[in-house]
User: Which sequence fits this backbone?
């Protein structure tokens, strides 16, 4: 696939998301936004999103892979813990997670 | 005249408020895209085309890992499926007739959770549906404007800052999305996040092409049934 030019890949990828918007526009007012089908769809979407984010953070490619695994792991673990301890304040979780990651990356602990 | 004024009011209220969250997260996307050697024009097109952060990060990461195009389209599409409930909730608030019109697809394309919340905030104050729609479109364009500036800044920074700073910029957005997802209070969603975080990375080691899709469907379905059973028993 990587042999294909970027622009040729963009069209089907964009349509893959636009498809949901078409369904949303057509179905608006016909199905409830708290239906069981949408509940299952949301579960799958969040599972995929969380899985990809964990993969990007814990097993990245590129320059992030040069940061020690311990720094990445502690950045996520401390960030998520601070988020829940602060009553789910994103700014607190993000601040703690980034600080821990930056410090451990700087110390280059592995 | 009033329509124009209301449009700019939406644009301004976005830029002076929640638009900055979009700007910051798009800086992270821009640095990731630059790392994956995506040209700036293509990064801006994919930003406007997908217009949902989980799918953007999924696209860059999966594209970089070299998976097949069909798996890339499906995985990115499913990662962005959260646009469906937001669209279903938003369109009835702004349409002026029950008939589906081309403009509705435009509204859906640039809608976001931020724009939907912005719409709900002014719904009581702007009673004229045409003016409310103008406010919504202005708000959406504000997020697109700041998002575009964020991507441009992120891609420019990626080429000019030290690797240590660049790593932190790249670390911001996936952590932000993870925390944003975890801010849901629904047990089914929290279970899905935990199950997806465990199953999807492992499944991807078994199949680079289909691990994300199969692992995500499996993890999400298990989480859905556990949460449903728990809901029925309480």
Assistant:
């Amino acid at each position: 696939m990587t042999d294909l030019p970027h622009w040729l890949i963009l069209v089907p990828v964009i349509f893959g998301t636009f498809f949901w918007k078409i369904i949303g526009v057509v179905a608006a007012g016909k199905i409830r936004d708290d239906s069981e089908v949408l509940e299952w769809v949301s579960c799958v979407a969040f599972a995929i999103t969380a899985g990809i984010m964990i993969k990007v953070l814990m097993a990245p490619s590129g320059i992030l892979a040069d940061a020690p695994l311990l720094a990445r792991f502690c950045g996520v673990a401390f960030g998520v813990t601070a988020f829940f301890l602060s009553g789910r304040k994103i700014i607190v979780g993000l601040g703690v997670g980034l600080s821990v990651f930056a410090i451990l990356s700087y110390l280059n602990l592995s | 005249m009033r329509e124009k004024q209301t449009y700019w009011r939406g644009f301004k209220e976005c830029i002076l408020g929640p638009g900055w969250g979009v700007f910051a997260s798009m800086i992270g996307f821009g640095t990731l895209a630059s790392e994956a050697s995506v040209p700036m024009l293509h990064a801006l097109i994919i930003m406007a085309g997908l217009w949902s952060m989980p799918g953007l990060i999924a696209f860059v990461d999966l594209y970089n890992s070299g998976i097949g195009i069909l798996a890339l389209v499906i995985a990115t599409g499913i990662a962005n499926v959260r646009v469906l409930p937001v669209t279903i909730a938003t369109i009835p608030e702004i349409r002026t007739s029950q008939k589906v019109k081309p403009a509705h697809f435009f509204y859906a394309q640039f809608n976001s959770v931020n724009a939907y919340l912005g719409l709900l905030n002014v719904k009581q104050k702007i009673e004229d549906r045409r003016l409310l729609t103008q406010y919504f479109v202005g708000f959406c364009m504000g997020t697109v404007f700041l998002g575009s500036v964020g991507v441009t800044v992120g891609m420019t920074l990626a080429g000019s800052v030290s690797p240590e700073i660049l790593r932190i910029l790249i670390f911001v957005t996936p952590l932000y999305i993870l925390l944003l997802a975890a801010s849901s209070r629904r047990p089914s969603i929290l279970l899905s996040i935990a199950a997806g975080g465990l199953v999807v990375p492992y499944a991807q080691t078994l199949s680079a092409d289909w691990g994300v899709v199969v692992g995500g469907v499996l993890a999400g379905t298990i989480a859905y049934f556990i949460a449903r059973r728990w809901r029925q028993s309480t």
Observations:
- The mean pLDDT of chain B is 90.
- Chain B touches chain A through 99 residues (CB under 8 Å).
